[in-house]
Amino acid sequence: MTYLTATGTKQDPPQRRRFRFGLKTAFVVMTVLCLWLGWRMARQRQAAAVISRSYAVLDVIESNIATAPPNTIFTMPSHLRQRQANFLKQTRQGSIEQSSQLGSIFSNGRYYIMATRGQPLDITKLVATSDTKAASVQIRTHYEKGLAKLGLKRSLTSDGEKATAIWQMPNHGIHVVIDVDADQNQADVRVIFMHNETLSIW
């Protein structure tokens, strides 16, 4: 089919230009796409590793808290202890909600989680066989069990009626603080777990 121009001459219809790209462009596009997918998968693997480390430490803390140190008795009723123990469950649920949307974790490159638990103990029996300072250290040792096996290192300790230990996992932003304050009849124990890590693959 031909067209008449304004001057009356015949002209072929205009050809539609098709989008074309060369082999080099295709390689560049594929390379960028592969790099982006690889970067995304690496970030997801890193997030999974961060959360796994966090949960492993929480498992040990939960196990230590579930049993009273030798020669001590829980003074808080079991139903109240169970209610208070939910700090770990709530902490995990909160991190699961966060981690279910990895994009929200990576938007600012931070992963932060904190949990604290306090519980009173009757230490009359323990103090009968040792002094208050030794009892505090013995109780603190009970709550430290298993942390070294996970790679945490004790960075600070204080021995006395108020016995404190700070455990850290180097380069991973994990901190566990164990604080025992004892008198002749009772010890107040506080365990604090913190995880603050910058997520980066670089």
Describe the fold and architecture:
By secondary structure, the chain is of the alpha+beta class. It has one domain. 46% of the residues lie in helices and 27% in strands. It is built from 5 helices and 8 strands. The protein has helices at residues 23-66, 78-99, 102-108, 124-129, 132-144; strands spanning 3-4, 10-11, 73-74, 110-122, 153-158, 162-169, 174-182, 186-198. Strands 3-4-8-7-6-5 form a 6-stranded antiparallel sheet. Strands 1-2 form a two-stranded antiparallel sheet. Strand 7 and strand 8 (186-198) form a beta hairpin. Helix 1 (23-66) packs antiparallel against helix 2 (78-99).
Describe the structure concisely.
By secondary structure, the chain is an alpha+beta fold.
Would you spell out the secondary-structure blueprint of this structure?
Elements: E1 3-4, E2 10-11, H1 23-66, E3 73-74, H2 78-99, H3 102-108, E4 110-122, H4 124-129, H5 132-144, E5 153-158, E6 162-169, E7 174-182, E8 186-198
Antiparallel strand pairs: 1-2, 3-4, 4-8, 5-6, 6-7, 7-8
